Amino acid sequence: MLLKIWQALVGPKPRFDRGLVLCVLALLGISVVLISSASVTEAFTRFGDSAYYLKRQLVYVALGLLVFIVCAAIPTRKVQQSSIYLLCLSLVLLIAVLIVGREINEAKRWLELGVFNIQPAEILKLAWIVYLSSYASRKIAEIRTQKKGFIKPLVFIGLIAGMLLAQPDFGSLVVVTMITFGILFAAGAGLLKYFLTGFIVAIIGSALIAFQPYRMRRVMSFLDPWADEFGSGYQLTQSLMAFGRGGLCGEGLGNSIQKLGYLPEAHTDFVTAILGEELGFVGMLVVIALEFIIIFKAVHLSFKLLRSSPSFAGFAAFGIGIWFCLQTVINIGAASGALPTKGLTLPLVSYGGSSLMICMAALALLLRIDFEYRQGLWGSAARKLQLRPGS
To answer: Which of 222, 231, 236, 311 lies at 20 to 30 Å from 88 by C-alpha?
Structure first.
């Protein structure tokens, strides 16, 4: 297998998207370097080992690369056939986390497996993309012409919302909901349905924020963090100071002041702030550009596929593009004060095993879709095979 991968990488005729692979490897490299710097103080304070988080991240990266290679070898058709099982697994894990999950920072989002924790909400994102893409490819006519084709996924989102809000994990709910709207839009759902649904979702979202004190504090601190700079606005003000110190080219790798116990979650949700402080605006542009290339490749590939037929692969690629775009925008927006804090990781960069490995699995699916497209496995003939009875 390794020989075939090497030949595919260096051969004269690219069999898959080399640019995508290089972007992934570059972001993983940046992640290791950033976390080695951002986590030093907290790792030494909590565990007496300044390289504690770095060692774990290196293990996560190695496992993520293994997941990437294994998942890229799975035919897309097999993934589609397993969509319902993946979704059921994610729902079981969401229920389990409410019963026996580990509580961290007043949130029950993690299942403890001894060596590391898993976050079921991360698994849900990929499982939902796979399932909804399969649904859209099979029910395309129903989605376009009948209300029930549009409403069925939203009913399911209501069930998922109850479990995510019980954790609570409002950020993941926003991502899953927007992925749903994006895939249904790509499937041809009418704009009137979106206006009505968006109005209802806006009312429900406003109510969820208004009646939960911690969410209201986040919104108020986002609007004016300096009004309570040592209370609800503390994390954001420290993040903004990190960006302010970074300037154009940054203070230099390892020279962050905010990581020295001032900025909470410096190696996870707010790793972007340390990036801005140490590598400046230039470093931020590099990371944003790499994330944008991945997003562009996903959306561009989906357009090429959906132009010929409403295939599972086209919807899945579009869903992955939306997912990465949302998490990138929300993470950077929250760290820079442009959006309320949501607790979402920066794909492939923030510390964490669940997020990294699920992102690698998603990108492996994207790479496999691209590979099959280059091999001519998606098109009118493939569409007929996909719709074959029993498929």
So the answer is: 311
d(C-alpha 184, C-alpha 181), whole Å:
5
Residue 260, pLDDT above cutoff 90:
no
Asked whether the predicted pLDDT for residue 371 surpasses 80, the reply is yes
Three-state SS string over 161-207 comes to HHHHHHCCCHHHHHHHHHHHHHHHHHCCCCHHHHHHHHHHHHHHHHH
For residues 301 and 324, give the distance between their C-alpha atoms in angstroms, rounded to a whole number. 15
Q: What does the alpha-carbon distance between residue 275 and residue 252 come to, in Å, rounded to a whole number? A: 10
The tokens for 281 are: 């605006």
Mean pLDDT confidence for 251-266: 85
pLDDT tens, position by position, 146-161: 888 888 888 888 888 8
Q: Give dist(CA 52, CA 137) in Å, integer.
A: 45
Q: Where are the domains of the chain?
A: 17-373
pLDDT in the model for residue 383: 46
pLDDT (tens digit, 9 = 90+) per residue, 190-248?
Answer: 776 667 777 777 777 677 666 666 666 666 666 777 777 777 778 888 888 999 888 88
Q: What is the pLDDT averaged over residues 293-316?
A: 91
One-letter identity of residue 172? S
